[in-house]
Structures are given as C-alpha cells and as structure tokens.
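Review form for a predicted model. The reviewer records the input and the model, then writes brief findings.
Reviewer: anonymous (R2)
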Amino acid sequence: MSTIIQIKNISKVYGKTHVLKDVNLEIKKGEIIALLGPNGAGKTTLISIICGLVNKSAGSVIIDGFDNATNFRKAREKVGLVPQELHLAMFDKVVNTLHYSRGLFGKKRNEKHINELIEKLHLSDKKNQEIRSLSGGMKRRVLIAKALAHQPKILFLDEPTAGVDVELRKSTWNLVKQLRQSGVTIILTTHYIEEAESIADRIGIINKGKLILVDDKKTLMKRLGKKHIQINLANPIEEMPQKLKDLSLELSEDKINLYYHFKDKKEYQNIPLILQTIKDCGLNINELNTSKSSLEDIFVDIVNDEY
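Model under review:
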C-alpha cells in the first residue's frame, strides 16, 4: 500500500512541557490504524497537528502529497475529523448542518451523498430535527456524518465512541469497516482497547509524547503476547514449594491456583516437567485452563515498562 500521510519529526512544546517528542509515522492508504495511550500521552495533540488545528513546534506533515503548512487548504480537504467534544450548532437541523459542512470545503451540493450518510448513520428519522433535541449518541453520529460530508480520503476519529452505548459503538465499528472497504484511510484514538483489537490493522502506542511502538496488530500480539496456564489445585496451600518457584510458577492470593506464563516453544516444553513436579510435591490438580494475552494485556505491559 502507498503512503497517504507522512509524519516527520513532529514535536510540540507548550512552555517547558514537551507534549510530543520527535514523532515519525507513515500511514498507508486504505488502512485502519489505532493510536493507544494513557490520558495526556499526546494522541489528540498529534491528530490536531495533522489536521492543521494546532501549530507544531517542529517537523512536517505531508497529506496525500500536500504539506499541511505550506498547502493547508489542499491538505485539509483530504481530511475529515470527528473530535472528542460535541461542537455542533444546536439550533440547526441535521440535514442542513451536513450540507453546510460540505459547502465549507467548496463542494457542490449533493443530496444523494448526504442522504446516504444520513441512512448509514441511522439518522433518517432525525433528518429534519434540530440538533439540540438529539441524544448524546445521536449527536455523535451527526459529528461523524459532518466529517464525511465532503467525501474525504482520510478520516480521523478522536475517541469516536466515548460515552456512547454498546449498540452505537458496534454500529460505529461496522461503519468504519465499510469506509475502509470503500478506500477511506482511518486513524482513530481510543480508550477502548477492544475497539482497536476489533477493527485496527495496525496499532501505535503513544506514551509521554513519544510514539514508542507501531506494528501490525497480529504481529504485535504474536510477538509480545503470552500464553497462560492456570492450574487449579484440589486444596489451597500455605506456601509454594521451592521446586515450583524455580520453575517460575506464581501462586494466586487465594492460594489455590498456580500460574505459568510462556512465550515460546522452549518455555512451552517445561509444562510436562511442571505437572510432574506438582505431583512430586504431593499436590493434586483439580483443573487446567489456558488463555492468551489480549491487546489490553500487551498495552498495559508496554506502558508500565515505560514508567
């Protein structure tokens, strides 16, 4: 896939605070990339700089061949942005605000496109209502429709499902997938790790203003993920035998479960020895359960390692 956004050495300083530090990132045409990070990590600032809403302190952003500083208008018309906050003209009707948003980018009126957006976002019965009468979830849908009104090639979603119900969250995910299929490149920030795990192709992790990792989601989970075995004992034990400690087992707080974490084939081959050692220690096993690390587990481990 060809590069549609090129971010080079982006930094942002407020006073003495470095909000972003030398961020480099290439975003491929037609992909979905999720940016994860704790509050204050710099995710929203990075998106705002790319969209030309915040001035950078250093670096450059090229959007579909246009520098967003020297050729702002051309670069900006390639982009749709759904912000965290609900910035809407509350007394406007839904359909009118979409036509107005399209006009801001110099696009001709297009009833068909606007009506298709309204239908896709389940706003048909709200089309002629004033925005102030809508629920928070419906207003969020209007924001997405506004961002898509001028048919951008790139869509930024800054916490798109924050504060909405599960049904709207799932419908937003489906819409994002449909947009990607139509060729739209999507960049989203999210606090919902399951959101990134469900729809993203690549994951970027930002912490303390630094982009500390960018990788294909499947590769990331394979490379950094772990498998876990939970060994449920027939009876609790007061203290784990030293032989089991030497095999890197952990004892649960309730003293009735042993845990073993492994990443590769070599560590996996220790399992028969572990089971035999448990038996040799006079302990009886009630049940065995296996699981894999989720993206959330990996994210927490990476961020904790940075602190």
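Findings: The chain has two domains: 3-222, 226-293.
Further findings: The chain has a mean pLDDT of 86.
Recommendation: see findings above.
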